[in-house]
Design goal:
By secondary structure, the protein is of the alpha/beta class. It has eight helices and twelve strands. A hairpin with a 2-residue loop joins strand 2 and strand 3.
Amino acid sequence: MLSRLTRLPRPTALAVCAAPVLALFAVAALAPLPFVVAVPGPTADVLGSDQGKPVITVTGAPVRDTKGQLRMTTIRATGPSSSMKLHELVDHWFRSDQAVMPREAVYPTGGSDKEIEQHNLEEMSQSQSAAEAAALGYLHKDPKSVKVDLNLADVGGPSAGLLFTLGIVDKIDGDGSGGDLTGGRSIAGTGTISADGTVGAVGGVGLKTQAARRDGATVFLVPKAECSDAKSELPEGLQLIPVTSLTDAVDALRALNRGEGVPSC
């Protein structure tokens, strides 16, 4: 025997259906969400000094006086243990000077704040070793004879690798280049580096371009795979140059100094 369904009046039915939806929105509005807010961070000239000590020190090879700047760029994000609610997320979402990012995109390793800080410092150390290997390989210098010391406090992660490498290349004299890389400009950029000179993507490039322009850069080296992200919020007066390798970056800067055309995004 079929049971008989009772038809509710339409307004009552709508109210009954809406109740779970409203409850869901209420929970979502109050629940912490796995996102962080990032903003443009400080930049640092790797050709300069940090806390009274040169960022790059070379022994075992002649070094030249450099002109201009090579500025590595950073972002600052809320901590890995922080959380945001839906209304806070909406407040930050539409601001061009901030980015709402998935927590795992900024802190992929998870763990406590202290564990993540230690991981970032280890990544920075590995990045510096790769930068030294890539630069000396490019310059055909014997790593047993030429030593490089890199000193930059309060910065973690691997994204300064490309700029460290370019700084070493620019510092070491006798590479047959006939001049420094910057041509007196303020050059900024980002990108990981591997020992063979391959440049890798890093994330947060839209915010890093803002940091670069804020601190006076006119040229920004960006991993080619992140061109579209870099263009999305590109500050006026900042020229983007896409690169996939150390050779790309050096060749582009040399061409820029000669007044020749360079790649663009």
